[in-house]
Amino acid sequence: MASEVPISSYAQRTSISAWRVPTPPRIVVPPPSLNQDHLPEIALGAFKDSAFIDQVDFTNLITQNVLQEWTYERRREAQLILPYLFLGPMQSAKDEAWLRKEGITCVLGVRQKGAFESKLMNGALRKAAELGIEHYTVDLAGHQDLIQAFPSTTAHIHNHVAHKLQSTGKPGKVLVFCESGNERSAGVVAAYLMETYEDGDFIKAMQLCQAQRFCVNFDDSMKRLLQGYWDILCARRQVAAQSIESTAQAGQGATNGNTTAMPKRSLQRDEDEDIDGMSIDDVERFGGRTFVPFVDEAL
């Protein structure tokens, strides 16, 4: 037990306190709810380019990878996350028979920059080139580089599948892989789900990846990274919605002959300060709190 650290003689402790660096709360990913067939029930609604996604059949998606049938050996195989998107290890990207069987048209490798893993992945890329499969890599120095790569990986997957659908009448199929298929590549797939689907928040995206590939590992750093990217996506969508609304209002005003500019919202923070110097924002944040860590000792 840690020794007690003396505090000021003018204050007394009101509760137990910890002498350590503050850490963010853990993000818990609950298991998805099950339907009457005891299968995970995860609904996704099209958000981006719905004309393309509407042509994809999502019927009985989860039933192709039932959790009760998962075996340890399946970690060496790639699993279907969406009808056009697979997630797996580097070994699956070298499996010529499997690539031909599933009709993979693009492989996307996520590798550590400058590591021995980069050289190992060259074999998978050469195999894709031999088979005439489009190949694309993302080189990362660490987990934090992923959040910068997410927009480009999502665009690459989406554009490839849509282009194949337009040119051949069938959507392309993309395999996203890393060395194990359980970490960085799983983060790329989860980010794709978040950005592409209306209902795909970061919790549901991780649930779907785990339901389809049971061995994926979203550690605390990856969970917080996906949560941060989800906040960015929400902010972008809100700004886009406000821009569309403003454009519509401006167009309606021009149609009605009203060209008067709308007044800007004034900043009232300085005007709303009370006599103690506390603003309205501070009242909303701290006004309802009753707990204080220390209190003055009675003299």
TrEMBL record:
Composition bias, Polar residues: 247-261
InterPro entries assigned to the protein according to its UniProt record, in alphabetical order: Dual-sp_phosphatase_cat-dom (IPR000340), Prot-tyrosine_phosphatase-like (IPR029021), STYX-Interacting_Phosphatase (IPR052449), Tyr_Pase_dom (IPR000387), TYR_PHOSPHATASE_DUAL_dom (IPR020422)
Domain Tyrosine specific protein phosphatases: 148-213
SUPFAM superfamilies in UniProt: (Phosphotyrosine protein) phosphatases II
An individual GO BP term: regulation of ERK1 and ERK2 cascade
UniProt-annotated stretches for the region Disordered: 247-274
One annotated GO molecular function: F-box domain binding
A single GO cellular-component term on record: nucleoplasm
CDD domains in the cross-refs: DSP (cd14498)
Pfam families associated with the record: DSPc
Protein family: Belongs to the protein-tyrosine phosphatase family. Non-receptor class subfamily.
Name this polypeptide is given: Tyrosine specific protein phosphatases domain-containing protein
Source organism: Extremus antarcticus
